[in-house]
Amino acid sequence: MNWIFEPWPWYVSGPLIAFIMFLLIMVGKNFGMSSNLRTLCTICGAGNKVDFFKFDWKTQRWNILVAVGTVIGGLIAAYFLSNSEVVNINSDVVSKLNDLGFESAGKSYLPTELFDSNDLNMKSIIILIIGGLLVGFGARYAGGCTSGHAISGLSNLQLSSLIAVVGFFIGGLIMVHLIFPLIF
Amino acid sequence: MRSVIYLFIGILFGIIMYKSEASSWFRIYEMFQFKAFHMYGIIGSALVIGIIVIQLIKRLNIKSFYGEKIHFAPKAKSFSRYMYGGIIFGLGWALAGACPGPMFTLLGAGYLPIIIVIVSAVIGTYVYGLLKDKLPH
């Protein structure tokens, strides 16, 4: 059973993600996490101002429960199913990140430079805010995120999802290769 | 009862997102550097199995666990919204190192600054709702 406490390899994780999609289809729902961001807007009352958020959020209650489960799953995995939080990324990537000022590369799960709650500086807060805004805006504009397009949509052979996933990669490559050298 | 099932599916998903390291900012960065197969293996194998599963459900006319007909809603046809929206999403995915699933996972894993990302993502979604009719779709 020791393997459970080690990081799971891709050939275990990938099929399990397909299994999650299968389970959701078989209970008559669909796999898409970013819809919850819209539902959260509606729960906060956004429907009074903007029509896009005017819907009965209770129809999305099931997906909010999936999201709550995801939080609990993260807690269980991090506190009870892991004996190390080091992510063994490629050594070239570690040195590249070290050059950019990420000393925590290869030593932690998330970069402490951005996610250390005891040592949050203005720059990391701004980066997290901009990152979140782009993810939320982009996911809804594109009509889905990694789960809705890259997994559900592509599995259903949707051309629209292929365009979206190509977009995800164009955006990611621009950020990492062109913008990171300017901000880090 | 159904509520418990949704919660359970979410818990399983959260565990997978954390243990696969798909919730790690470093793995996302590494993926966009093309320096490891890990993330491509995860998405690729999920996809191959996902395609087979959906084809089987369609061809064999498999019913849901509750005996209902399974309906796959096709995505609306467009280019601009998927491309522009996708690029904007990708910029944020690489910067924050988290897409919506992992955001919730990391909250549970105790990385509290992710709350800033989640709140911003909700606000970003709201801004999209505000500007929706002015954007090319």
UniProtKB/TrEMBL annotation, chain A:
Recorded family membership: Belongs to the TsuA/YedE (TC 9.B.102) family.
Name the UniProt record assigns to this protein: YeeE/YedE family protein
PANTHER family, A to Z: INNER MEMBRANE PROTEIN YEDE (PTHR30574), SULPHUR TRANSPORT DOMAIN-CONTAINING PROTEIN (PTHR30574:SF1)
Topological type in the membrane: Multi-pass membrane protein
GO cellular component, one term: plasma membrane
InterPro entries in the cross-refs: Sulf_transp_TsuA/YedE (IPR007272)
Keywords assigned: Cell inner membrane, Cell membrane, Membrane, Transmembrane, Transmembrane helix, Transport
Subcellular location(s) per record: Cell inner membrane
UniProtKB/TrEMBL annotation, chain B:
Transmembrane segments: 38-57, 82-104, 110-131
Protein name: Transporter
InterPro entries tied to this protein: DUF6691
Keywords: Membrane, Transmembrane, Transmembrane helix
Highest rank taxon of the organism: Bacteria
